[in-house]
Amino acid sequence: MEFYENFAKRYDSLVNLTDRKKREGDFWQKIFKVNKIKRILDCACGTGHHLIMFKQFGYDAFGSDQSPAMIAKAKENGRKEDLNLDLSISAFNTLSSVFQEKFDAVICVGNSLPYLQTESDLLTALSEMNMVLNNSGLLVLELRNYDKMLAKRNRFLPMSFKGSQGFIYAFDYFLDKITFNVIYIDCSTNTFEVYATDYFPLGCEKLYRLLEASNFQVMKALQDFHFSGFDIETSDNLILLCKKCA
Predict the structure, then answer these.
(1) How many other CB atoms are there within 10 angstroms of residue 77's CB atom?
(2) Helix (H, G, I), strand (E, B), or coil: what is residue 61?
(3) pTM (2 decimals)?
């Protein structure tokens, strides 16, 4: 969580809300319409981009995150859009105690699950997501394709720059974790900042097994927000559409 407490002030520089809506908007509206979704929980809401998007689309949307700094930034972003966001500070393992009413959909995107280190923690998190869902509710997970990452061990992602400011991304691979390094550069002041966080690789076999154990059925596996099918050898990201089993 320390990574996000420190990085919250820079996080929105990575993805513009308008660009995110253009890239993802049709995807979310289609799956919510097909699954008759009205009430949504974003349980790793970060700075609130998806929450704002869902509210602007007319959905009854709620957000939670375990980082107080991210929640504060989400409130600020909501005010900029003239929205009073429904936000709570909550880790994955406390969802059912924080939220008493059920949801039609829970989303957990932004590669959030792999911050959990043990199978026990992952199973608890997925079970908590299941508990706050209505019967046959929808769970949407998004994370990196760790099977490909561990096979290829590529160290760098493409750099991103806007004007004089930009980011460099690098991965360090260890026996049981991957450290993600983000280097923020401001060329106008010749300064830089380094942020780092650890991911615990979550491959497809383990993830599918844990989803089944927590009473979910995987309906679709995609690689992007254009409904392209997932390929374990070539896809960079994994998006799973899951149903809560009756």
Answers:
(1) 19
(2) strand
(3) 0.94
